[in-house]
Amino acid sequence: MIRRRVVGAAAFVVIVVIWQVAAATRLYNPVLLPPPSSAIVALERLAANGTLANDLGASLGRYGVGFGIGCMAGVLVGFITSRVRLIGDAVEPLFHYLRSIPSVALIPAVIVLFGIGDGGKVAIVVWACFFPTWLNTFLGMREVRPEHIRTAQSLGASPIVVAFHVLLPSSLPYILAGVRTAIATGLFALAAGEMIGASAGIAFRIFQSYELFHTDAMIGYTLLIGAVALVADLIVVAITTRLAPWSIAAK
Amino acid sequence: MVDSSEVIGLGGVGVEFARPAGALTVLQGLDLTIHRGDFTCILGPSGSGKTTILNLIAGFIRPTHGSVVVEGRESPSPGRDRGYVFQHHGLFPWKSIAQNIEFGLLIRGVPRSERRAQVHRIAGAVGLGDFLDDRPDQLSGGMQQRAGLARVLVNEPEILLMDEPFSSLDAMTAQQMREFLARLLAPAPKTVVFVTHDVDEALFLADRVILLSERPGRVVLDERVQLARPRSEDIVGEKSYLQLRSLIYSHLFGRENAPASDSDNALRPSTAKD
Question: How many other C-beta atoms can be found within 10 angstroms of the C-beta atom of residue A202?
Answer without folding.
Answer: 23
